[in-house]
Amino acid sequence: MLTSEQIKAVRKIQIRTSHLVSDLFAGQYQSVFKGRGMEFAEVRHYLPGDDIRTIDWNVTARTGVPHVKRFVEERELTVMLLVDASASTHFGTAKQLKSEMAAEMAALFAFSAITNNDKVGLVMFSDHVELALPPKKGTRHVLRVIREVLSFSPQGRGTDISAALEYLNRVSKRRCVTFVISDFLDIRARLALKIANRRHDVIAVVLDDPRDLVLPDVGLIALQDAETGEHMLLDTGDPRVRREFEQRSQAARRDRDRMLRGIDVDAVVVRTDRPYTEALLRFFHMRERRH
To answer: Which of 15, 82, 9, 70 shows the shortest CA–CA distance to 39?
Structure first.
């Protein structure tokens, strides 16, 4: 049962993302993820007037009767949202938590999908798959997706992107558009991302917070790893500590970006301290130019 605060949060996200879809993203979504050509339907006997370029010569040779291939316009897409629910996403030092931004990203992609008559499915994961909603159409289904992402309480604390992608490959036989929404702190996911991207159109939606990159100078602080529970003391007043933290953070992000580029997975990075509209528009424009 949702609390009144959660209901308000869902409604707020619905209003905001519906507005953005209608005003900014609907056309970009359609041009980027639609128009993938024709798909094979069947082979039938040749009829007078058929284009000879559609003749299936293999079947014709085998049967001795001219046959043609028939194609139909590709049907609607299936959009899968793979959302990281691990403990590290319940963190944010700016306008919102990463988990709240994940809910807003999921809502934006889901409303864009149903506006174009596409189906939307959801997989919530931590160190294992915790929840799966089969792809469906309609506003009611999208609102459930938003509610689940916003209010879900995972059993696990860690992150296993590979487990979510392997589950996707088992249940999705047809190619689908897959948004993986995570802070991508799981460095083991390269192979699973590469395999999934061969079958599906995988897009990495990376959740960042300014404190992931730079430590403030606030003296001695006690830190706890959200996923492992490990505790440590850190002297943020020491410039060398802050510099080493920043260097390691930047190196980790360079490795992440290099990994995604190396397996041809497109990425859009959104931050809790900045509006995400510009990052998404840049992403859509990049995909449009490529297509």
So the answer is: 70
- Collapsing DSSP to helix, strand or coil, 144 comes out as helix
Distance CA 159, CA 195 (A): 18
Q: Which two tokens stand for residue 253?
A: 């992000």
Q: 60: pLDDT confidence band, cut at 50, 70 and 90?
A: very high
Contact partners, residue 33, CB within 8 Å, separation at least 6: 77, 79, 116, 118, 177, 201
Q: Whole-angstrom Cα distance, residue 51 to residue 93?
A: 62
82 touches 178 (CB < 8 A): yes
Q: How far is CA 179 from the centre of its chain?
A: 2
Instruction: Provide CATH 3.40.50.410 ranges for the chain.
Output: 4-34+75-290
Q: What share of the chain is helix, strand, coil (3-state, %, to 5)?
A: 45, 25, 30
Which is nearest to 202 in space by CA: 179, 185, 174, 172? 179
Contact of 49 with 90, CB cutoff 8 Å: no
What's the pLDDT band for 5 if we cut at 50, 70, 90? confident
Task: Please tell me the CATH superfamily of domain 4-34+75-290, with its number.
Answer: von Willebrand factor, type A domain (3.40.50.410)
> pLDDT tens digit string along 150-171?
889 999 999 999 999 999 999 9
